Amino acid sequence: MSSARGTMGRIIRTLRSTPAMALFTMMLFGTALFGMVVALEDVPPVLLATTRSSLASVFLVGLLMIFWERATGIPRGNITFKRVVTADLKGKGLIWIILGFALFSTLLPNIMQNVGITLMDPGSTSSLSSLIQGIGPVLTIFLAALILREHLDKWKVLGLVITLPATLILTTYGSSGFQLTSDTTIGGLLNLGTAISYSISAIFLKIALNRGGNPILLVAVNMIIGTILIIPIQIILISIGWESPADILHISLPSLLAVIYLSISISAIASFIWYLVLQREKVSKATFYIFLLPAFPVILGYLLLGERLDIIQVSAGLSILLGVFISQRKG
């Protein structure tokens, strides 16, 4: 009996370990692009971003209420918005950090990525998007060195030198060859902008965590503020007739399930677990796990969406992965 308990205890400790949490998070994040491709078949890009962040906010607020005292240190009977702001945000100098984080982790990437996906070559959308965003870890490493003063060595520089040209190729190359002014290129640039935005958001997040911000409170407040920032853009698009809330009423079951999955599993659960990983690790070390991220959308795109990549796209994608791998070497 004691042996079984010991084995179960070891399994639980392993599942709670930083590597296991990071790998699980990458698996979830890796399925996000597949979910976006499915959801965008019925839901306009910005409406998807608005719906996704709104549902995630509701879920996270419920989660926060359950773990309220652990997250804020405030007794349940004293719950007020003012106490939250004073206790864990304003008191730790996190107000402007959270605003910047919400801008670069929720508002900008959600809109850029969704619009970018709709413009890219439908025969390889999720695969190409994931490979272009594969440059994110290298960008994050450089930002961590510049802003957080984390160590930067020759391997990280070499990684950037390798990944930048490969990313440029994937951004401008479509099924008809290099197309500098096509929708595919614009979509690629928006996905590249998504990678840059997420890299910047990782720095904001690490600063907030270093100042004592609680992960579950940070992810909830970030999502709420991000939703507030998206809503005015959504109202403008509706008012000029570019998008309509009625589109969500005619959504197919696969798209509906994809929206729910993106909202709860990706925007809420995966983000929270990733915040825990960053709380424990340096940004430059945690980005190693993102190296694994592009593999999941490519595999899912091939198996479930019938996506195909030609030799140039595969070579460029492998170059990005190689660059990220090299950038993680020590010494």
Question: What does this 3D model show about the protein?
Answer:
- This protein has 15 helices and two strands.
- The chain is mainly α and 331 residues long.
- It has one domain.
- It has a two-stranded antiparallel sheet with strand order 1-2.
- The longest helix is centred in the middle third of the chain and has 28 residues, at 183-210.
- It is globular, with a radius of gyration of 20 Å.
- Residues 4-15 have low confidence and may be disordered.
Beta-strand content estimate:
under 5%
Mean pLDDT value: 77
Structure classification: mainly alpha
Give the biggest sheet.
2 strands, antiparallel
Note the run of SSEs as H and E.
HHHHHHHHHEEHHHHHH
Spatial shape: globular
Count of helices?
15
> Which bin fits the share of residues in helices?
over 70%
Taking all Cα atoms into account, the compactness measure Rg is: 20 Å
How many DSSP-defined strands?
2
Low-pLDDT windows of residues: 4-15
Span of the ends, CA to CA: 47 Å
| Main sheet strand line-up | 1-2
Number of individual domains: 1
